[in-house]
TrEMBL record:
It comes from the Eukaryota. The keyword Coiled coil applies. The keyword Coiled coil applies. This is Uncharacterized protein. It comes from Stephania yunnanensis.
Length: 315
């Protein structure tokens, strides 16, 4: 990696006419071993202050300060492609199933990463440099020639002549700008992810409250129908109760009439029992008298028979 840079520049792809798409710029740094490092970057608002640099021409003009150095109005969000989950407007005529479906989608999104899938370092650093430490070692010769050339003045002079006079300063400033913006982007990414999670939770709570309101409103709409049905049932029950009361009154009158007749029959039977008791008493008295008279007559007949037997015996 510690190879002097021979050339560098600013490239911009062709823009399709009729479109206003934001096209990224590419900084490249060509080393003496013919390797080229490419920096994809999006520049915005630079105007004419950033001069062209092609085929060894100088990167002329001033380049704006990004926190004191770097590339002026530099927007990293476009190259990163950050996106927050869009929360669509929720009409109040959704059904409960629709709301629960939206809540299920939110539950699927909660906890997921909303930032870019690629590593942020791999986006901002050159294509052939995959780690932050490799980038530091790659830019070390540009920042400190002594690290490559040592104390040898001739070697330092040869190194300074091997690169463009303004290339080291330009790419050192570019590297510092990218490094600073990388840290700021990581901070914004964490902040946006936390804010996105909070928004998703708030949306879920809102959907839950909307479901409750929807159920409450639907239950309120059903209450008049239930009240009318209850009133109809009450009227029918009242009519049925009156009809049953009339029927029960008729049945009660019939039962009372039957009871009265039974009471009369019982009174007649009681009178008959009294008469029969009297007859029984008279019959018993007659039987008793007949028994006494029968015994008296029997005694008389016995005496008569005895006398007759005695008279025959004497004769």
């Amino acid at each position: 990696m510690n190879v002097p840079a021979d050339d560098g520049g600013l490239l911009k792809p062709d823009v399709v006419e009729g479109t206003d798409d934001e096209v990224p710029y590419f900084f490249f740094l060509q080393f003496s071993d013919r390797r080229v490092l490419v920096f994809p970057i999006v520049l915005e608002g630079l105007g004419g202050r950033l001069g062209g640099y092609s085929g060894g021409s100088e990167l002329g003009g001033g380049y704006g300060g990004f926190g004191g150095s770097g590339l002026g109005a530099y927007r990293g969000e476009s190259s990163l492609g950050y996106s927050i989950l869009a929360t669509e407007s929720l009409p109040f005529n959704n059904t409960v199933d629709d709301l629960r479906e939206k809540m299920a989608d939110i539950d699927n999104h909660v906890g997921e990463e909303t930032g870019p899938k690629e590593d942020v370092e791999e986006i901002y650093l050159p294509e052939e440099i995959s780690t932050h430490s490799d980038a530091m070692s790659a830019f070390q010769p540009l920042q400190k020639p002594d690290a490559l050339c040592g104390r040898d003045r001739s070697a330092q002079f040869a190194f300074s002549q091997s690169i463009h006079p303004s290339g080291a300063a330009v790419f050192t400033g570019l590297y510092l700008s990218v490094k600073r913006h990388f840290k700021e982007t990581k901070f914004r990414r964490r902040h946006l992810e936390q804010e996105n999670q909070d928004l998703l939770k708030s949306l879920k709570e809102f959907l839950e409250s909307q479901i409750q309101e929807f159920l409450y409103a639907s239950s309120l709409k059903k209450l008049p129908n239930k009240l009318r049905s209850l009133e109809q049932i009450h009227k029918e029950c009242s009519a049925n109760l009156r009809a049953r009361e009339v029927e029960w009154d008729l049945q009660m009158e019939g039962l009372l009439h039957i009871v009265e007749e039974k009471d009369k029959i019982a009174d007649d039977l009681k009178q008959q029992i009294v008469v029969l008791d009297e007859e029984l008493m008279r019959t018993e008295t007659e039987v008793f008298e007949l028994g006494r008279s029968w015994k008296v007559n029997l005694r008389k007949k016995r005496r008569t028979c005895r006398k007759r037997w005695k008279g025959k015996g004497r004769g």
